[in-house]
Amino acid sequence: MTVAHDSTRRTVMAALVALPLGAATTASNAQVGEMRQQGSRTLVAYFSRSRNTRVVAGLIHRARGTDLFEIRPASAYPEDYEQTVEQARKETESGYRPPLEATVPAIAGYDTVFLGFPIWGTTVPPVVRSFLSAHDLSGKALIPFITHGGYGPGNSKSVLASDAPKARLLDGFVMEMDQERRTMERVTSWLSGVPQT
Question: Is 46 helix (H, G, I), strand (E, B) or coil?
């Protein structure tokens, strides 16, 4: 790979992260945090600590014209990576589900939920399990998009099936994020095979 190609790749990825994820935010969204509504019957909900999952969420949101919601814990995870890993480990082992900063208003209005998260300790982050506990996804198509650092999706499929038992769990998208130069093409290719709802 050339230095010029590497520089271009980094510029494109930085631009994707910097782009606003939604074209419009309604006034009522101010108290909801990062909820972006476009009147869609499809929601992209995501949790992202390092912004990798946020990039994929933004690509799906823009490609499908979805509503968008960022999942955030009421108390942010530590800035320090090792402290976050330790906190997440303790939460997972104890079954703790941290309170959310906000929930999705009128979740019943969505037919499809794309749910994005990174793999933490071979599983779904506790805050995403909080999201699943706080929202009734009965009858909705639940489509995961998962980022990881090299260990694959872990036990995420069984966790989603357990925590959203009445949702229709569809095959999702899994990507190792050190392959960032292929993110856009892989997400676009994957989305072309996901039925419009």
Answer: strand
Which band of pLDDT confidence, cut at 50, 70 and 90, is reported for residue 179? low
* Alpha carbons 191 and 37: distance in angstroms, whole number: 20
Q: Would you place residue 90 in the very low, low, confident or very high pLDDT band (cuts 50, 70, 90)?
A: very high
Question: What is the pLDDT at residue 94?
Answer: 96
Rounded to the nearest 10°, the torsion over CA 173, 96, 36, 60 is 0
Sign of CA dihedral 69, 71, 75, 78: negative
DSSP state of 195: P
- Measured between its terminal Cα atoms, the distance across the chain in Å is 39
3-state secondary structure of 37: coil
pTM confidence score: 0.76
Tokens of 183: 């993110």
Whose tokens are 């999201």? That residue is 131
Q: Which of 147, 140, 75, 149 is nearest to 106 (CA)?
A: 140
Question: CA 187 to CA 125: how far, in whole Å?
Answer: 22
- Residue 180 above 80 pLDDT? no
Contact 59, 183 (CB under 8 A): yes
Q: What is the pLDDT of residues 100-111, one digit of tens each?
A: 999 998 999 999
